[in-house]
Amino acid sequence: VLLQASGGGLVQPGGYLRLSCAASGNILSINDMGWYRQAPGKQRKLVARISSSTSTEYVDSVQGRFIISRDDAKNTVDLQMNSLKPEDTAVYYCYVDMSVRWLGSRVRNDYWGQGTLVTVSS
């Protein structure tokens, strides 16, 4: 099972970025998908998540600026980040709660991407 994240980079305050994460492997089903972030010297925290029924949840600081979406046909989760602020600077990690086929059994777990750096600075 592999989660590949992409889309990070350097952007000016007020700008936008779109992060994408694709899951691949012996996937049987996907439940929640989401994004966490970890700023320098701080703990990793939830940014947004989306359930299998597409209900969404956002941390207060990004509500109204970020939009999470998923494409179950492609096993992807995206995070559209608008009106970016310097405090959004962090490494962003995608995660997927999914069931996979492993050695003949169904195994459910949270799987994590490798992290992608977002820097908001002028």
Summarize the structure.
This protein has 122 residues and is mainly β.
Key traits:
11 strands; 122 residues; single chain; elongated; mainly beta; 7-stranded mixed beta sheet; 4-stranded antiparallel beta sheet
Q: Which structural class do the helices and strands define? A: mainly beta
Please tally the β strands and state the result: 11
The main pleated sheet reads as: 7 strands, mixed
Radius of gyration equals: 14 Å
Q: Mean pLDDT across all residues, rounded? A: 96
How many helices? The count is 0
| Terminal-residue CA separation | 37 Å
What assembly state would you assign to the polypeptide chains in this entry?
A: single chain
- The arrangement of helices and strands along the chain is EEEEEEEEEEE
Coarse morphology: elongated
Residue fraction in strands: over 45%
Pick out the low-confidence regions.
Answer: none
Fraction of residues in H or I helices: under 10%
